[in-house]
Amino acid sequence: RGFSPRKKWPVVLLAHGNGGDARGFLQQIRPLAGKPPLLLVSLERCDNQQNAVGYVPRYLTELEKQFPIDLDHVYALGFSGGGFRLWDDIVCKKEVLPRFRGVVLVGAGRQSFDPPPAPEKAPTIVFVGDPRDENYGRSRPAAADGLRERGFQVILHEHTAGHSLPPKELKAVFAWIAKDVRTSKPKRAPR
Fold this sequence. Notes:
The protein has 191 residues and is an alpha/beta fold. 32% of the residues lie in helices and 20% in strands.
């Protein structure tokens, strides 16, 4: 609603979980996103069970060609398998990290690789999960500590709702994104 190609838009790329799809994930997330002026773009084939290595950064490249994206405010939110994909394809890729302002891992933690030291323009990494959920609890503590040691800002939203998309915590994430969009100064160097 209210989209106009005359203004640059903050964008949240949504990566569904294993067995999910883009439409269903968008329907789950949309009510939790509140009213900030964001483009929510739900991506297909972006979990960690498919041959989807590097899909989210490639989707971003293609979206930049088609939509007026505010490149200082690009966020990614992945649930479960989508979160693990974001870990490997964004958090652990030195050349990709500066393209994102925030990466939200819901029900997911560390996947296959270790992250590099935080670049000068590093995204904030947000973990949302239940410590009893093995997808999250097994790897999140070490992942969060490792990220902090490498110079990243880390935010934790923990809950007791199991392997889920908890409304309260996700509303808090979108409130953080909305505030960040309103208050952060552009950091991207001119092209």
